[in-house]
Amino acid sequence: MPAHGKHRRKKSGPLSRGILAAGTGGAVLALPLIGATGAHAAEPASPAVKSAAVTRSAPAAVTKDVPKTYTVVSGDSLAKIATAEKIKGGWQKLYKDNRDVVGGNPSLIVPGMKLTLGAKASGAAAKPAAAKPERAEAKPAAKAAPAAAKAAPAEKTTAASEATASGWAAPVEHPVVTTQYHQAGASWSSGYHTGSDFQAASGTSVRSIGPGTVVSAGWSGAYGNEVVIQHSDGMYSQYAHLSSLEVSAGQTVTGGQEIGLSGTTGNSTGPHLHFEVRTGPSYGSDVDPIAYLRSHGVTI
Question: Which residue among the candidates 193, 231, 241, 272 is catalytic per the annotation?
């Protein structure tokens, strides 16, 4: 009897119940039930989590899509702006994000230039700053406007063709000399004007007068932003007070190629182009620039 009682207790134990479940198909039913229960619990929770994630992330995405814009003022530099605006990555990050706006030289930023802070500036963002859409909307209002717009490219094409044919060109289109070479005056350290000044509003295209190689392009004290080019005949031309530069040292250029935009940087009384021709790359080796241009067939 005691042995029989022990046998009964074994059947009522966990092992016995497990065998019974397996024998009746309980394990087969239990596994789908557990799986179904888990799936049933997970299915409603997953959409809820996704919905909550979408709801919470939407405002963050809107915030990131609205970068801050900074307008450059006199005396600014990329380093100064990056420090003041606490740009992560410093001026290098600020320059990288705005290279299309600043250009090839990070030290050349001018008042009025708009920089994007914290996100890379896109071409789409740059176009409104130039007010191009406003011009496009204004043109349909007057029939004469499209004709004028078409005439401008034709005029540039003609000038470029002339420069290509001769290999030489005036530093600006429709050149008008406002200050003659060797004009005397106390305004100049040498006692006279070492070049010829051409009438040029800020932003006017400045062109290389002939084929050559850029010797220097950057800041040059009283001359502001300047470009110096050595030409195939060994002479040098200098373009000063520029608002922006389109070339860099070592670059090869052709006659009539744009090298920068006119401005009033450095010691300047107003927007214009100061132009010199020299026998060497530096100040003090000047010759008559108008006579030089005419010797290459340029009419001024």
Answer: 272
**Residue 238: its H or E element:** strand 236-242
Query: 76 Cβ partners below 8 Å, 6+ apart?
Result: 109, 111
The residues near 189 (Cβ < 8 Å, ≥ 6 apart) are none
Give the global pTM: 0.47
Which two structure tokens, joined as six digits, stand for 154? 């034709």
Same domain flag for 128 and 205: no
Contact 298, 276 (CB under 8 A): no
Do 291 and 187 belong to one domain?
yes
Residue 242 CB neighbours (<10 A): 29
Helix (H) or strand (E) holding 63: helix 26-64
Number of domains comprising the chain: 3
Domain containing 18 equals 2-47
Look up 241 and say whether it is catalytic: no
Taking the C-alpha atoms of residue 73 and residue 81, their distance in angstroms, rounded to an integer, is 10
Whether 60 maps to a domain, the answer reads no
Question: What CATH number does the domain containing 88 carry?
Answer: 3.10.350.10
Clarify whether residues 36 and 79 are in a common domain. no
Cα 110 to Cα 244: distance, rounded to the nearest angstrom: 8
The tens digit of pLDDT for each residue in 18-51 reads 444 444 444 444 444 444 444 444 444 444 444 4
Spell out the residues 6+ positions from residue 261 whose beta carbon is closer than 8 angstroms to its own. 202, 203, 204, 205, 206, 242, 243, 244, 246
Q: Are both 29 and 77 inside the same structural domain?
A: no
pLDDT in tens, 66-122: 678 888 887 787 888 888 888 888 888 888 888 888 776 676 777 778 888 876 554
CB atoms within 10 A of CB 227: 27
Written as six digits, the tokens of 27 are 């394990």
Contacts of 30 (CB under 8 A, 6+ apart): 21
CB atoms within 10 A of CB 275: 26
